[in-house]
Amino acid sequence: MSVSRRGFLKSVVGGSVALGAASLTKEAKASKKELPPDAVGILYDSNLCIGCQSCMVACKRANNMPVEHTGDQKTWDNPIDLSGKTLNIIKMYKKGDKFAFIKRQCMHCLEPACAAACPVTALHKDEKTGIVTYDPSACIGCRYCEVACPYDIPKFEWDSPFPQIRKCQLCNHLLEKGEYAACCAVCPTGASLFGPVEKLRKEAQRRMLMKPGEYYEFPVNHIESGKTRVHKAKPYINHIYGLDELGGSQCMILAGVEFDKLGLPDVRRQSYVSDLEGVSKGLYKYVVYPVAALGGLVYLVKKRGVHD
Amino acid sequence: MSEARPLSSRVITVPFILGVIVILLAGIFLLKRFIYGLGSVSGMNDGYPWGLWIAYDVNVGTAFACGGYAMAILIYIFNKGEYTPLLKPAILTSMLGYTLAAVSIFFDIGRYWNMFNIFMPWHMNFHSPMLEVAVCIASYVVVLWIEFSPVLVKNPGVRRMLKVEDIEEKLNKVLFIFVALGMLLPTMHQSSLGTLMILAGHKLSPLYWSKLLPLFFLICAIMMGYCIVIFETSVSGVAFKNTHEFKLLTKLSGVIPWLIGIFLIMRIQDINARGALSQIFKGDLPGNMFLIETFLLLIGLIILWKPENRTNVKKVFIAAFCVLLGAGLYRFDTYICGFNPGNGWHYFPTAPELIITFGVISVEILGYLYVVKRFPVLALPSKNK
After folding, report:
1. Mean pLDDT over all residues of chain A?
2. Helix (H) or strand (E) holding B92
3. Domain assignment of residue A98, given as a range
4. Cα dist. B230→A85, B7, B245, B363 in Å?
5. Residues of B in contact with A162 (CB under 8 A)
6. How far does A274 lie from chain B, in Å, by closest CA?
7. pLDDT for the residue A12
8. Cα separation, B4 vs B23, whole angstroms
9. How many residue pairs from chains A and B have C-beta atoms closer than 8 A?
10. Domain check: are A250 and A279 in the same one?
């Protein structure tokens, strides 16, 4: 009797370990995430950017962010990277006489790692617009979002006793007023272009097919504004960054220089969020496994008696 | 025969006073942290948002505090009642270790006044391993205090304070639930501490990133749990001249080589399966740390493999020490040395950050010394009357 019970226990334990291991190693299918119904985003075209940084000024004004001084000067806002004070930045890559600008801000991923990481849903992907927003009243300041973000976007206010996480929220507060992202609204060349993601994707694909040296019309500010500028097309790297990266994102980047040189990580297509979901769903099946395990343990301890 | 008795020696000793000084210093820096923000005392930054406190105090610290959990598995699941004398001191270190890890989390999180949001159902994100870790660690601290409370209420002073005469009987009636929870909760959050870093994705070296992280962290925690029991029993045995539990260590140490073996084979095969074996010999930080960890674990494995070595307390102690270092480093490196956010970020703990961690360790050691001297924890030879 006791032998058979022991055998039973063993097979149960062995079985669940095998099950757990199987679900851990099972490759999650790389299915492309669908866009939220009213998904909006930004298409940034490094080839059109002239580095005027008016988007940085507009961003600070629209989001009420403080100026950030780097070095000895105390006059100009001159951040060197995104920070708790800067949500959007234009950086320059330079090698010899070749140079390119790059805009860094939240990509508003389709499978945002920050929102998957956040224990208290302070970071949340809006079901309609897909904008990843931040709610300081929920945030506990654990900074797991910073660890999880593949693009190093969320930043923390290290010098404040009451810190917040800071990140681009695609001017969510302006959308309610019928306006849109301040950085795009001021961009003079159309390098930062706001709009529904579907249309931005088509526009990006159109630019991939352009013949370098020829003149084309480029939409400016908002892809539905009807305003355009004529630019001479420069050669593009044949890749739309953000279309497929880690499950895709609502912001996309085009450039004439390799993306890793612009500080963008070379990442795979499948998101790490899907890995996490595979593991946590496999192991915890919601609450069934832990509750079953607790039942088994209570039975065992009861049977053996509490050792003192 | 032996029985659990307080040591009844002096509490205020020279090491005790030194510890108090470190704790006071740490307190001053903590005050600074709460007035001027985290950046004023720590080297953490937006590239390395987690530093020493999360990597050591929480990740390594709670694994050091897995003695109670590891012994409970042996005693209740594998029905090895003979290890019971080692259980109580192990639960004491677990209780102190976990309590201090919870305190470390409290001063590490930026918005501590929102902390209770992790218990609010409308805020909870059930897919976040951080939620699981936070809720489980918080509950496990409570469970450990309850598990240890039968020892605490044996002290007449405590009993007078509580004003409940039959508290021991009442406790004994419900204790089995907490003993069971005491095995479930660590299994969940010790593995989740590994799951956390799955989201770090490409920022974590392929030598450390793995979908098996939860399994590796769990094996590590159990392995370190047994080793800390060996470490602590040998140190307190020598310090308090109480060597009669040493023969139990011989038997206990036989479990460890199996755990190391399983851990190393799975980890190396996992790296191999992802085609990243060549990274080991790249000569960079993650590669070198991998070699150091593996070397330390192998020393433990080789020493404890031979049954005759397990009867030698000194050799068992050295092996346990190597495993604690190696497995502790593995956990630390998964959070710091194997993590590289790119773009030139780097991290090194500042002096105040280190002193705060030393303060936390001091509280643990002083707490242990105080409790074993005033409460019946250690199994000592019976008094000859």
Report:
1. 88
2. helix B84-108
3. 40-268
4. 50, 20, 10, 21
5. 111
6. 9
7. 43
8. 30
9. 200
10. no
> What distance in Å separates the CA atoms of residue B233 and residue B251, rounded to the nearest whole number?
13
- In degrees, rounded to 5, the angle at the alpha carbon of residue A79 between the alpha carbons of residues A78 and A81 is 150
Task: Go through chain A and tell me how many residues it has.
Answer: 308
Q: Walk along chain B (385 residues) in steps of 10 and give the mean pLDDT of each run.
A: 75 89 97 96 96 96 95 90 88 95 96 95 91 94 93 81 74 88 93 95 96 95 95 87 81 93 96 93 95 97 93 92 97 96 93 97 94 86 60
- Chain B residues 330-359 with a CB less than 8 Å from chain A: 339, 341-343
Q: In chain B, which residues have their Cβ closer than 8 Å to the Cβ of A279?
A: 195, 198, 211, 214
Whether B109 has its CB under 8 Å from any CB of chain A: the answer is yes
Q: Are strands A40-45 and A252-254 parallel, antiparallel or unpaired?
A: parallel
Q: Do A141 and A288 fall within a single domain?
A: no
A213 and A291 housed in the same domain: no
Q: Token pair of B348, please?
A: 């090194």
Range B42-342 has CATH code 1.20.1630.10? yes
> What pTM was computed for the model?
0.90
**Cα of A31 to nearest chain B Cα, Å:** 18
Tokens of A288: 């069934």
Chain A CB within 8 Å of residue B177 CB: yes
CA-nearest of B52, B85, B89, B39 to B68 is B89
User: How many Å lie between the alpha carbon of B308 and the closest alpha carbon of chain A?
Assistant: 30
A75: confidence class by pLDDT, cuts 50, 70, 90: confident
- What is the Cα–Cα distance from B330 to B55, expressed in whole angstroms? 10
Cβ of A119 within 8 Å of Cβ of B134? The answer is: yes
